[in-house]
Each structure stands twice: as structure tokens, then as C-alpha cells.
Amino acid sequence: MAAKIAMGKKVPNFKIPSSNGETFSLSDLKGKKVVLYFYPKDSTPGCTTEGIEFNELLSQFKKQNAVVYGISRDSLKSHDKFICKYDFKFDLLSDEEEEVCQIFDVIKEKNMYGKKVMGIERSTFVIDEDQKLVGEFRKIKAQGHAAEILKFIKDL
Which of 140, 98, 146 is nearest to 119 (CA)? Predict the structure, then answer.
């Protein structure tokens, strides 16, 4: 298992399937701020709220030279349905093997209906133009989170 990335350190490059049909590679985004938000599951209430809010603020993120990507363990097929249902204008990344989840240490034990399960802890990471980790947000509430991240980026 990879060591957790420390604030201010360069994020290692990773490649992961993207809903746009291509392979996402972090190194391709050098020179842009990157928002990676990890969410538990497509089309669930909190994840839908979070996705809609990021989508609504997308043009403001772009004005800050920032791109937004959602990541979950869902398949690309599931992502495609989620994107179509809510008309998301950004790509979702599929981490079925949990490789990127491990890099960012977002797989945590959760309590679902009294049963312990391992799942994605809702988390967001901001990576600067030099691909260094400059923002780490964990155990977040979906509602209002996209605006919080936008403010964080504006204040960088």
C-alpha cells in the first residue's frame, strides 16, 4: 500500500479510466489546478448533491484555471448513467481496483445499517499547477462543499 501523500508534496502520477473514454493521467494536467473529489457511490443522495453543486460551479472553477474530477469505485457504465441523468459537464474517474483510493487513503471502515463495511470516505484533494498537494478535505458534508472548495482555490 502506498504511503499517504503529505501536504506540499508532489502527487505521484496515476492513470485511471475516465468517463470521456480516455485514460486520465494526472501528469497531463500540469499547469492546471486539479480538484479530485472522492465520493462513495453514483446516484446516491449525497453524491448526487455534491456532483450537481460542482457542475453548477464548473465555469467558476475554470476561471481559476482549475479542473474538477469525481472519483468512485463505480464502473464507467455506472458513471455514464450518472452523468447523463444529471448532465454533468465534467468527467468521472473509475477506480474499481482502488489504486487511486489507496494513494489518497480514502478507503475507510464505515457503519452501514449496523454493519461494518469498507468504503470511500467523502474527501476532496486540491493539487496545484506543479502537481503538489495543497488542499485536503476529509469527512466532508456534500451540501455546500463545492462552494467551499471554490473559495479555497480562489484564496490560494
Answer: 98
